[in-house]
Amino acid sequence: MEILRALEAYAPCNEQEERDRREILRAVNEHEDIFLRSCMLAHMTASAWIVNARRDRVLMAWHNIYRSWSWLGGHADGERDLLSVALREAREESGLSRVRAVDENIFSLEILTVDGHEKRGAYVPSHLNVTYLLEGDEREALAAKPDENSGVRWFPLDEAAAASSEPWMRARVYEKLNRKLRARGVFENP
Question: Whole-angstrom Cα distance, residue 95 to residue 117?
Fold first, then answer.
């Protein structure tokens, strides 16, 4: 699904998502370079809320920059297929080879005003983030990606949110993702 149509079709779950959706749509329409890190306003990223088949555990990585357990994901770097970005980053950052989209729709979105930092020698501004719900096989071996994280592990849903040391991410993003997951009623064995 083309990202502009996906953003237009997305049904926000709260005021934060509605406002952020409007701003992300505006940025995509007005900034030719929004999918590149060189866009200093902000740039597009894709994240993954990776659950197991029973939907009772979430995969998180210890993020080296933020020094916190966090979701997996990364920068679009010119790619406009953000689901592909989320899948690629999930595989690269976790070592999982069997990871798939639960569906192709956007699961969540948010503007992340990340702390300014450098990556690969360049300043990194805020992120316009699209999140996808992915499924991974928790029996598969995990592997950290040392340049980005120093650990990857499965957490029960509520422990996943609580494991984050970033209060805003914990309360406004991870707990929201868990509420949305529970609202889907997907806690049945496949």
Answer: 25
